[in-house]
Amino acid sequence: MTRLLLAGLLALSAIAPAAAQPFGYGPGPGRGNPELRAERFECRQEARARGYRGPAVRAAVLDCLRARRPDLARIVECRQSARAHGYIPRTPEFRMAVRSCRFG
Questions:
Q1: Residue 23 Ramachandran class (φ > 0 left, ψ -120 to 50 alpha, else beta)
Q2: Is there a contact between 21 and 54 (Cβ–Cβ < 8 Å)?
Q3: What is the residue range of the signal peptide feature (predicted)?
Q4: 52 DSSP 8-state letter
Q5: pLDDT surpassing 80 at residue 7
Q6: Under DSSP, is residue 29 helix (H, G, I), strand (E, B) or coil?
Q7: What is the average pLDDT across 66-83?
C-alpha cells in the first residue's frame, strides 16, 4: 500500500513541472525573436480587446505590426510567403527563403 502511494506521489512530482511550463503564447521565454514575440503579443491583446476573433485577429495583428514596427512586419510577411511556397519552418531552406525575402 505504501509502495503504491509512494509511486503515485513520485509520478505526480514528475508531471507537475512539465504541466507548469508555459506554452509560448506570451512575451516570455521561448523560440524566436523575443522582440517580435513581445510586439506580436501586444498587438494580439489589442485586437482581442477590440473584439476580433479568428482569422480577423491575424489580419489585425499584421496591420498593428505594420504601423508600429514595419521591420518586424516584414519578417512576418516573409515567413508567410516562405510557408506559401511550401518551405517547412525551421529548416535551412526556410531560413534562407526568409533571409532572401527580408534582405534581397
A1: alpha
A2: no
A3: 1-20
A4: -
A5: no
A6: coil
A7: 95
